[in-house]
Write a structure and sequence with these properties.
Two copies of one chain form a homodimer. By secondary structure, chain A is mainly alpha-helical. The first copy, chain A, has ten helices and no strands. Chain A binds a DNA duplex through helix 1 and helix 3.
DNA sequence: TGTTTTTTTTACCATTTGGTCAAAGCAAGG
DNA sequence: CCTTGCTTTGACCAAATGGTAAAAAAAACA
């Protein structure tokens, strides 16, 4: 076998799924291999048969998530209607906060601590994409199709407002009116916010 | 002595200052008593002479910060001009992100992990203040002095956008145009954002 | 079925870490 | 100087934790 058998694939993804659970809840240092292994339904030495160590699990998990995470921004389409493109982007980001809160918190945890295990990765893929899209936003502003403002801060504000609902879920849940769908009302609020902000 | 001598006060605050450094950078589990003690210029047993344990240091640190942290929201004045009050609040929050990024990241870390050591505290002080201020915002909206929207999400969005600059500093720094004052431009961007959003 | 290869487990190790303890240092009053 | 009470430290401990080694178990193959 070449190390990619069906069993291997199944176990590797079971480990990564378990690692997402555990790392996102306790952070890198707070998570233990025993916890992850147990959540993946195997023993610690067995987990270490599939990954060379704790950090390797964490790093691969992060790397596999970056793509998924940046996809909505990648889809911001230069040929579409500016306002609709941005509204769609915001809607997708809120949806991701709802459907993948663990992934969001995993990133948040890593970045809050200074991204010690993601530094180079961030500065490549992410920076390239960020520069491309801020340039696009600038162009739209130059053409008068959306209101003029700092495009970098515009993206920051979208990230902040949308990811907040996943990253600070504990606080949100505590403070929100019970009985309402937080993500539904958040989507409406943010849609209105960005329409008001961006309409020239 | 009654346990509050000058030496005691000096050492306790040295410990808390060191703990802020270390906890905000590595999280609760990632920080070690040795690190904190060493940063405070003393030995670990000496630190444990002043605090009963690691968690006690962490909890007291958090409790002492909550007050400082909520102060700007407390100052939202029912008798002031609504728009100016909110602009002042946003400006103060940005300023706090700039001047107390460690405090911000300490909270972020705790909340991202589900606030396991702050639950009850949050649900009391914070919730009470939050409800009071959303009621105030609602009143202002009823009176037609600011645009109508969900007041809870309005506060969430202010927290998200302002604290983002402290909590995600690593990312912000990596992506921002070098040579510009991030906090200065952020303050301008957010001022403009909330003026546009809130003007009836 | 017998052999080889992959997978899993049991037992273990070294280090880290939160915390204890008893002894030593030290300031203040007598 | 000597006692008394507060402060600091060096030595130590038990538990947790990342990781290893070798053998058992299970598949895969011939």
């Amino acid at each position: 076998m070449d190390g990619n058998s069906r069993v291997q694939k199944r176990n590797r993804s079971a480990i990564l799924a378990a690692a997402l659970d555990v790392f996102s809840q306790h952070g890198y240092r707070g998570a233990t291999l025993d916890q992850i292994a147990s959540a993946a339904g195997m023993s610690k030495p067995n987990l270490l048969y599939y990954f060379p160590g704790k950090e390797a699990v964490f790093v691969q998990l992060l790397h596999e998530l970056v793509d998924k995470w940046l996809e909505p921004l990648r889809q911001l389409n230069a040929d579409g209607d500016p306002l609709e493109e941005i509204r769609t982007y915001v809607r997708r980001k809120v949806q991701m906060s709802q459907e993948m809160p663990q992934e969001s918190r995993l990133f948040a945890n890593e970045i809050v601590q200074g991204a010690p295990r993601m530094g180079t990765y961030l500065s490549q893929d992410l920076k390239e994409l960020f520069d491309e899209k801020t340039a696009l936003l600038s162009k739209w502003m130059d053409e008068g199709r959306i209101a003029r403002m700092d495009p970098q801060h515009l993206i920051f504000s979208i990230w902040a407002t949308t990811q907040h609902y996943a990253d600070f879920e504990a606080q949100i849940h505590l403070l929100s009116d019970p009985g309402t769908d937080v993500f539904q009302s958040a989507a409406e609020f943010l849609d209105n916010l960005y329409v008001r902000l961006l309409t020239p």
